[in-house]
Amino acid sequence: MKIHVASETMYMVKGNGVHTAFIDHLELLREQNQFEFVVNNDGFGDIFHSHTYGLYYFLKGMGYKNRRILTVHVIPDSIKGSLPFYKVFMPFVKWYFKQVYSYADVCIAISPEVENAIRKLNAKTNIVRIYNPIHIEKWKRTDENRSKGRQLLGLSDSDFVLLGVGQLQARKGVEDFMDVAQAIPNAKFVWAGGRPFKALTEGVLRIDSRIAQASDNIQFTGMLDLELMPLIYAAADAMLFTSYQENCPLAPIEAAACGMPVVFRDIMEYELLYEKSYLKAKSTEEFINDTQRLMNDKRYYEQGKQMSDTLLQQFDKNVVRQKLLNLYQNLVERSTEDFTPYLA
After folding, report:
1. What is the pLDDT of residues 246-260, one digit of tens each?
2. Which residues contact 178 (CB under 8 A, 6 or more apart)?
3. Do both 124 and 158 map to the same domain?
4. What is the reported pTM?
5. In the list 36, 99, 132, 170, which could disulfide-bond 2, CB 3.0-4.6 Å?
6. The CATH number of the domain where 107 resides is what?
7. How far does Cα 63 stand from its chain's mean position?
8. What pLDDT, on the 0 to 100 scale, is given for residue 243?
């Protein structure tokens, strides 16, 4: 069985979680030689599995009737706080995503919220829930990576470092991250991420003005190559994941795999997604309080690390690989009319 994996992120700026998920998918297929696969224009397979939803997805999928899979990373609500004037575009966005989801014979929902979004649009597709996998060995902290990361960021060994990862947009909570940094001048704050969509990003002028006036203890790396991210994570002591809307975010799980506490924003998406407990904050004030406690309370810090370690179990790559194998076999063997999806 040969899987045709596609992602338009190969031809775009790659600083986003969809591209990371695509790369992780390829590594998952490659690891145990259970699958043959081709990527984008490199050939033809038995099943078409896409991570993106543009013209390329529709054109490539034409040759795979009844054998199209889409991993759904983006839902209509993802544009809130991401694109300017999103309310104007929302009716078209909802119509377009309904076409995108319906074009696939199977949509992989990476979280309960994604599954709910697909159902709300009444898309004509089968839905299977499979989480994004985590390759723990890629992100595991080493002394060498920590040293290189701190050198890259100009940080000393004694600095307590808080990390934020994401695009520079309102939805990711970067302004809240700056507020926390301003309130805690005795810690260092690093925001890794830029604007792959440049001017087509909500709040460009407002956020750039805030960055220009940001306190001296925060730095912004801009967009970084994926290969550098293990060093950036290793340089940090904890992550503040301030995002207001996510589906199955990779960054906090990568940070957890690096062995650090992660403080999530307290939103419904995570309550539905995560099976284990995690540190969470409802407001900027709570992010400030949690950060100060992580800095000053060793028992609390160790508790946060243990929570991160437990959270990883839900995204075990071997479990995800087996679910994908079951799905691929099921789809090859059955037509759409009598297709019974493998329910994860």
Report:
1. 989 999 999 999 999
2. 189, 210, 211, 214, 215, 218
3. no
4. 0.87
5. 36
6. 3.40.50.2000
7. 29
8. 95
Total domains in the fold of the chain? 2
Check: CB of residue 20 under 8 Å from CB of residue 55: no
Is 35 within a domain? Answer: yes
Which tokens sit at 51?
């991570």
Range 243-266 burial, b when 16+ CB lie within 10 A, else e: bebbbbbbbbbbbbbbebbbbbbe
Q: How far apart are CA 4 and CA 331, in angstroms?
A: 14
pLDDT in tens, 211-241: 999 999 999 999 998 899 999 999 999 999 9
In a domain, 157, yes or no: yes
Q: Are 190 and 143 contained in the same domain?
A: yes
Q: In the structure encoding, which two tokens stand for residue 199, read together?
A: 């001017």
